[in-house]
Amino acid sequence: MPDPIYRRIADDLRRQIETGELRPGDQLKTEIELRDHYSASRNTIRDAIKWLITRGLVETRPGQGTFVTERIDSFISTLTGDPTQSGLNDETIYLAEVAASGRVPKNSPTQVEIRKANAVIADALRIDEGAQVVVRRQRRFLDGTPFSMLTSYYPMTLVERGAVELIRAIAIEGGAVEYLRNNLGISQVGYRDLIAVRAPDPNETMFFKLPDDGRVPVFQIFRVGFDENGDRFRLTVTIYPADRNRFLVKVGKVPEGEQPMTDGGEHTPLAMNEAAG
Q1: Which CATH architecture has domain 5-68?
Q2: 10 Å Cβ neighbour count for 128?
Q3: Nearest to 33, CA basis, from 68, 11, 62, 65
Q4: Fewer Cβ neighbours under 10 Å: the N or C end of the chain?
Q5: 274 Cβ contact partners less than 8 Å away, ≥ 6 residues apart
Q6: Tens digit of pLDDT per residue, the chain (277 long)?
């Protein structure tokens, strides 16, 4: 049985995109021009465009038309690591991976606020709902493209014990985990990740420049850090858009330099990871 007409039209447009006849940012012909070119009905052309949209090949811009999407080179983040190794924290692992990929990282200035813990934060940190927490926010870019948003929560009791750098709106050299180890003797011996997938909210849609119809989801990773007493001392929530991020999890003895499988950048696998000391 032959493919329906809309699929044949969509496949021809996809071929033009893949061969470079239509380049990222190029505008497709208008609906009327496409109807004339393919001798097809309005609904058939619209179905073909919808097919391309759902595969992330084109996007419609209200009042402007339909354009070939800009392709973003994906980045692989390693979720596993030795949480007890001195100096090996989330930030240093991330920077090492960026350097190995030959890409250029940039972080936004750190934003800090003090707020009351809601039910989710309180449960994650095992503190009373309404207790004060320090909130530290940062946005990450690769080659000028936004790739992730980080928000970390720390009990205010850590500041009261002397970790005053947490409430300063500056990047902490070596990272907050290393800072807490050096200044309060709080050593991270394990962390636990919980990963959820959802549609982006308006703020995330704007920052990551995602389609506003929610077809590109985001990964939301909740990482809780544990000290030697089993107490929870930090919650970091990181948002990753699925169109440019992939995750790597290593379990057991993996040879050094072993490269992860590639998928052509068309799919982003979902990883669940739990590491404990």
Answers
A1: Orthogonal Bundle (1.10)
A2: 10
A3: 65
A4: N
A5: 192, 193
A6: 678 999 999 999 999 999 999 999 999 999 999 999 999 999 999 999 999 988 889 988 888 999 998 888 899 998 887 665 555 567 777 888 898 889 999 999 999 999 999 999 999 999 999 999 999 999 999 999 999 999 999 999 999 999 999 999 999 988 999 999 999 999 999 999 999 999 999 999 999 988 877 888 999 999 999 999 999 999 999 999 999 999 988 888 888 766 666 554 443 333 333 333 3
Q: What is the pTM of this model?
A: 0.77
In DSSP notation, 48-117 reads HHHHHHHTTSEEEETTTEEEEPPP---EEEE----TTSTT--HHHHHHHHHHHHT--EEEPPPEEEEEE-
Residue in 219, 196, 218, 195 with CA at minimum distance from that of residue 205 = 218
Dihedrals φ, ψ of 94, to 5°? -60, -50
> In sequence order, what E strands does 111-207 have?
111-116, 132-142, 145-155, 190-198
Residues 6 or more apart in contact with residue 36 via CB below 8 angstroms: none
- Residue 43 CB neighbour total at 10 angstroms: 9
d(CA 108, CA 214) in angstroms, rounded, equals: 25
Question: Treating both helix axes as pointing N-terminal to C-terminal, what angle do 31-38 and 5-19 enclose, rounded to 10 degrees?
Answer: 110
Q: How many CB atoms lie within 10 A of CB 240?
A: 24
Token pair listed for 261: 């499988």
CB within 8 Å of 136: residues ≥ 6 apart:
110, 111, 112, 151, 152, 154, 166, 176
Which part of the chain has CATH 3.40.1410.10? 75-275
> Under CATH, domain 75-275 is a member of which superfamily?
Chorismate lyase-like (3.40.1410.10)
Task: Give the pLDDT confidence score for residue 256 in this predicted structure.
Answer: 74
